[in-house]
Amino acid sequence: MIRESNAKIITQVPGPKSQELTKKRERYVAKGVSSSTPVFIDEAKGALIKDVDGNVFVDFAGAIGVQNIGHKDEEVVEAIKAQLDKYIHPSFHVNMYEPYVDLAEKLTEITPGDYSKKAMFANSGAEAVENAIKIARAYTKKQGIISLQGSFHGRTNMTMSITSKYKPYKSGFGPFVSETYKTDAAYCYRCPLGCKYPSCQIACAEKLRTMLKTVISPDMIACLIAEPVQGEGGFVVPPKEYFKTLQEICNENNIVFIVDEVQAGFARTGKTFAHENFDVEADLITMSKSIANGVPLSAVVGKAEIMDAACVGGIGGTYGGSPLGCVAALKVIEKIEKEDLNSKSLEMGNYIMKRLNEMKEKYNVIGDVRGLGAMIGLEFVKDRDTKEPYGEIVKKVIKYCFEHGVIFLNAGLFGNVIRFLPPLVMTKEQLEYGLNTLDDAINASI
């Protein structure tokens, strides 16, 4: 059990045990499987991770947004243990079980929209996106898909095709799915149209109307899918009007509006679902990551009429909606509500934003600080006027932080953004240590 309350580095990192395991990994694990840190984990709890050499790290990555309620939450562990004593996986497609239906009911209750909804479950975010697109195609009898520049939706063939970043996600893996199209994201710091908000009148969204008259036609397009806050794209937060305009365009053209909440959902942004910040109601919502505290699970939730368009047997999968994942997810939602983690996310986010803006005043290499709740991006540039991306310093800063016991991840099309996905149970002491270390790292790297 982790007894430390904060970071503690006792060996060089990686330590000797991690180095030995790395040799084994290099021999037996495919090269294409990436790892952001060079250590092997022994245990994790709350916002702390302890490696096999006894080094303790403060975790600002949260397994890429999986650990919103903290590593190894005790109530989730107990719920999983109780389920293990009953059965592990009879497969809902063969023998039905109550946790699947209970979770479907709960998700239809807590997702935005005052209309009849239904849900289905899969294993990963990419699978949720695949199933949402299949459902949209079945409902509209159309094939085309629109996604946003800078988007990330997964590594399957379909989700690679609608993901915007080529390397490493698409490199060498083509051909890709046809009838997929990209439209501009509202990346106000780097506006693709050279405009300034709010005088721009949301030109990036309005451009889609023109696109639907020139490049493509509404009778081709089944769905538009968008992340409310782009993840891999650099934690880009659009103006509220952007999503409202996208939804209007979808409604006008019989296009299913899919919101991808895989990384942004479950209290990360100060709302249970991030698109609640934009006052829109999706036709379909995809979700995964923090839904079950690390047990593989994903979901598609949406309007009942649309969800029922797929033929019987057309969606799902052998392991979709595992009992272990369902009971874990029910406990996660209970804890979000009981412990008011949305408020904790806002409080934590406000403090992080304050500290980062203070750093921006000190360091000219910080170009932009942006976020919602505790989902925050820190963008680095070589020059604030030209906004030339500064990915090199991000690598140095992350390395320094790691060597001093703090785990951060990068993001962005240029690799020049540090992203914040801290567990919402992180203590003030841990938060302070992480931010102080980040400050020191920037100072040491310029």
Shape by Cα distribution: globular
Give me the oligomer status.
single chain
Measured between the Cα atoms of the first and last residue, the distance is 38 Å
Mean pLDDT across every amino acid position: 97
Number of strands: 15
Major sheet strand order: 4-10-9-8-7-5-6
Helix content: 25-40%
| Secondary structure tally, helices | 13
Structure description:
The protein is an alpha/beta fold and 446 residues long. It has helices spanning 16-28, 62-65, 74-84, 98-110, 125-140, 157-162, 203-211, 240-252, 304-307, 323-338, 341-362, 391-403, 428-445; strands at residues 41-45, 48-51, 56-59, 117-122, 144-148, 180-183, 221-226, 256-260, 284-287, 298-303, 366-372, 375-380, 406-407, 409-411, 417-420. The strands form 3 sheets. Strands 4-10-9-8-7-5-6 form a 7-stranded mixed beta sheet, sandwiched between helices. It has a 4-stranded mixed beta sheet with strand order 1-2-3-13. Helix 4 runs parallel beside helix 10, helix 7 (203-211) runs parallel beside helix 8 (240-252) and helix 12 (391-403) packs across helix 13 (428-445).
Features:
446 residues; alpha/beta; seven-stranded mixed β-sheet; four-stranded mixed β-sheet; 13 helices; 15 strands; 16% strand
List the helices and strands and how they pair.
Layout (H helix, E strand, L loop, with lengths): L15 H13 L12 E5 L2 E4 L4 E4 L2 H4 L8 H11 L13 H13 L6 E6 L2 H16 L3 E5 L8 H6 L17 E4 L19 H9 L9 E6 L13 H13 L3 E5 L23 E4 L10 E6 H4 L15 H16 L2 H22 L3 E7 L2 E6 L10 H13 L2 E2 L1 E3 L5 E4 L7 H18 L1
Parallel strand pairs: 3-13, 5-6, 5-7, 7-8, 8-9
Antiparallel strand pairs: 1-2, 2-3, 4-10, 9-10, 11-12, 12-15, 14-15
